[in-house]
Amino acid sequence: APSLRRFWTMLAHWHGQIWNASDLARAMDTRPSTAKRYLDILSGAFMVPTHFHRLLALPDEVRRRYDVSSLRHVVHGGAPCPPEVKRRMLEWWGPGIYEYSGATEGGGTLATPQEWLAHPGTVGRAWGGGAEVRIVDDDGKECAPGQAGSVYLKVLQDFAYKGDPEKTRAGRRGDFFSVGDVGYLDGEGYL
C-alpha cells in the first residue's frame, strides 16, 4: 500500500490522474468502481473543512457503499471546522482525523482525534519542537484561560515579510508573532 507521505498533500495520484477530495466525492456518487479502487489504496490525506462538507453531503446510501478502513491519517486545517462536521467525519472514518492550526511563518497547534473528542472544537495544543501559543489582549497582556484575544505563536525560525519590515514589526511581541487570528486557551492549554 502507498505510504502516508505519498498522500501528505491534498492531492493523491492514481493511474496518472490527480484526485482531490471534491473529485472523490463526485466519483463516490457517479463512478463507484473508480472511487472504490481509490479508497482501497488511500491511507492518508490532507483536507480542509469544505472537503468534509462535500463528502458528508453525499447520500447515506452512497457513503455506506465504501470501505474507508484503509484510512489511517487524515490531517485537516486551513479554516474552522464546525464541531458537528468533525464529529460526523470521526463517526464515518474513525479515529484517524487530526486537526492543526498554524501559519507558514512558523509554529502552530495539533489536536489528535482523542484530544479533540475530549475538547470538541479545539485545534489542539502547541506542537513539539519548542512551539508555544499565547493569547494576548488589546493592551498586550496575556489573557486568562477562556478569555479571547489575539493568537501569538512562538517564532521557531526568524522570518521577515519581504519588502515589508513594518508588517514584520507590527506582528511581533518579543519572540512571538501573530497573523491576526483570534482565539482562547482553555485551562489545559488547548486553543
Query: What is the structural class?
Result: alpha+beta
Largest sheet: 5 strands, mixed
**What is the radius of gyration?**
19 Å
**Spatial separation of the terminal alpha carbons:** 35 Å
Coarse shape:
elongated
Residue windows where pLDDT falls under 50 for at least 5 positions: 1-18
The proportion of residues in beta strands is: 15-25%
Number of strands: 12
Written overview of the protein:
This protein starts with 11 loop residues before the first strand and ends in an 8-residue tail after the last strand. It has helices spanning 21-30, 32-41, 49-56, 60-64, 83-93, 113-118, 165-170; strands at residues 12-14, 17-19, 44-47, 73-76, 97-102, 108-111, 125-126, 133-136, 149-154, 172-173, 176-177, 182-183. α1 packs across α2 and α1 (21-30) runs parallel beside α3. β5 and β6 (108-111) form a beta hairpin. The chain is elongated and about 55 Å long. By secondary structure, the chain is an alpha+beta fold. The strands form three sheets. The chain has a five-stranded mixed beta sheet with strand order 3-4-5-6-7. Strands 8, 9, 10, 11 and 12 form a five-stranded antiparallel beta sheet that branches. A two-stranded antiparallel ribbon has the order 1-2.
Describe the SSE topology.
Layout: E1 12-14, E2 17-19, H1 21-30, H2 32-41, E3 44-47, H3 49-56, H4 60-64, E4 73-76, H5 83-93, E5 97-102, E6 108-111, H6 113-118, E7 125-126, E8 133-136, E9 149-154, H7 165-170, E10 172-173, E11 176-177, E12 182-183
Parallel strand pairs: 3-4, 4-5
Antiparallel strand pairs: 1-2, 5-6, 6-7, 8-9, 9-11, 9-12, 10-11
Helix pairs in contact: 1-2, 1-3, 3-5
